[in-house]
Amino acid sequence: MFAGHDTTALSLSWTLYFIGLDRDIQHRIHEEMDSILGTNRDVTIDDIKQMHYLEAVIKESLRLRPPVPTIIRAIKEDLNLGKYTIPKGVSLCLMIDSLHQDPDIYPEPLLFKPERFLSEGNSSANPFAYLPFSAGVRNCIGQKFALIELKIVLAKVLLNYSFESLDPRDRIIEYNAIVSKPKGGLRVRVSHRSGV
Primary place of residence (predicted)? Predict the structure, then answer.
C-alpha cells in the first residue's frame, strides 16, 4: 500500500518519535491540548483550527521525514534551467528530503524546530521549498484529510499520554520502499499522563 495508509501511519510514527525526543516540545503540546480540549472529549473542527503548535510540529516532522522522499516526473516540454536545457520526455527525480534539508532554505536543517512553521516564521520561503505532499497539479489529493487525521489522532493521544523515544536519531536506519521507513521500527516508551 502506498497512498493514504502507509504515508499517514509513517507520518504519525515519525511525529511521535520526534515529540518523544524533546520534553519541552511535548510539554508545549500537552499545554495546548489541555487548553483546547480540557477533558477527554471529541475533537471538533474549531478545536483543530486552534492547534497551531501541534500543526507546526506535524509540519516540521513532515519536513524532516517526508513520507515519500523522492518524486519522479516526466518532462512534457523542454525545460530551461539557466544555461542548461532538459529535453521533453526525460524523467526527473526530485529529492524531497534533500530539498527539505537545504541550509539555504532551512537554517540548521537537521534540528527539529517546529517554530519554523509558526506565524510568519516561514512565510518568505518559496512555496515549492516544502513538498511533503508534492505540489501543483499532481499534489496529493488527500493532503487536507491526512493533516486533519494526524491532528485528531495526535491530539487525542497526547491529551492522555506522554512519549519518550528510546533511540537517538543517529541510531535510526532508514530504507526506502517508495516510502521512507525506519528499519526495525521506532521504539518509544508510552506512559499515562498523571492528573489526566
Answer: endoplasmic reticulum
3-state secondary structure the chain: CCCCCHHHHHHHHHHHHHHHHCHHHHHHHHHHHHHHHCCCCCCCHHHHHHCHHHHHHHHHHHHHCCCCCEEEEECCCCEEECCEEECCCCEEEEEHHHHHCCCCCCCCCCCCCHHHHCCCCCCCCCHHHCCECECHHHCCCCHHHHHHHHHHHHHHHHHHEEEEECCCHHHCCEEEECEEEECCCCCEEEEECCCC
pTM of the prediction?
Answer: 0.88
Where in 2-144 does DSSP place strands (E)?
70-74, 79-81, 84-86, 91-95
DSSP per-residue codes, 83-104:
TEEEPTT-EEEEEHHHHHT-TT
Rg (CA), the chain: 18
In this predicted model, what pLDDT tens digit does every residue of 16-51 receive, in sequence order? Answer: 999 999 999 999 999 999 999 987 789 999 999 999
Q: Which helix (H) or strand (E) holds 120?
A: none
Q: Are 66 and 34 in contact (CB under 8 A)?
A: no
Q: Please, what's the b/e burial string for 106-116 (b: 16 or more CB within 10 A of its CB; e: otherwise)?
A: beebeebbbeb
Residue whose entry in the numeric block shows the C-alpha cell 516526466: 74
Write down the CATH number for the domain with range 6-67+100-192.
1.10.630.10
Is 140 annotated as ligand-binding? yes
